[in-house]
Amino acid sequence: MPSRSSAPSRAAAIGLLSLILGLILGLSGCGAPAPYRPPYMSSLPACPTHPNCVSSEEVRAEAQVAPLSFDKVPPYQAWAALKEAIRAEGGVIQREGMGALEAGYLRATFTSWLFRFVDDVECRLVAQDGLIHIRSAARVGYYDFGVNRRRVERLRQAFAEALQQP
User: Fold this and answer.
1) Residues 73 and 17 in one domain
2) DSSP helix/strand/coil, 89
């Protein structure tokens, strides 16, 4: 028969374990899948007003980034370099346009190491202008501490490096 002094500590341990399990389960539900967006739209979706998104097609200065540009390679080579850059930076390509209406659209996800937060990256090829428009946004939270802007700049660098390879 257990002693009376172990009953309160056992109850406290069970309570603490329940709290931790609840937090883990609650946070794991924060990464719900992103809604499918039709890729044949003429621009990427606008960023929300909170500072956890950047886009090359955004009109607000605080959420703007430059598009990826290519002028010395054909569009198919730039697109391949983009996919290589995304994978090199730890992204997982979720959807790539296959049909005539979807060609030139790509969606990838990036998952944070510690809390497993998921961010979405969307890209839209504008072959005639030699541009790839890019949008990176957090699925949850208000502020991203500049994570999405830094991700786009790392992708830009990896993209440029991939274009340099023979």
Assistant:
1) no
2) coil
- 34-80: pLDDT as tens digits: 555 554 568 899 999 989 999 999 999 999 999 999 999 999 999 99
Domain count, the chain: 2
- The answer to whether residues 48 and 124 belong to one domain is yes
pTM for this one?
A: 0.74
Residue with structure tokens 């994570």? 147
Q: Please tell me the total number of residues recorded for the chain in this structure.
A: 166
CA angle 110, 116, 117 (to 5 degrees): 65
73 shares a domain with 8: no
Looking at the DSSP bridge assignments, the partners of residue 135 are 55, 122
Q: How far apart are CA 39 and CA 123, in angstroms?
A: 9
DSSP state of 163: H
Amino acid (1-letter code) at residue 73: V
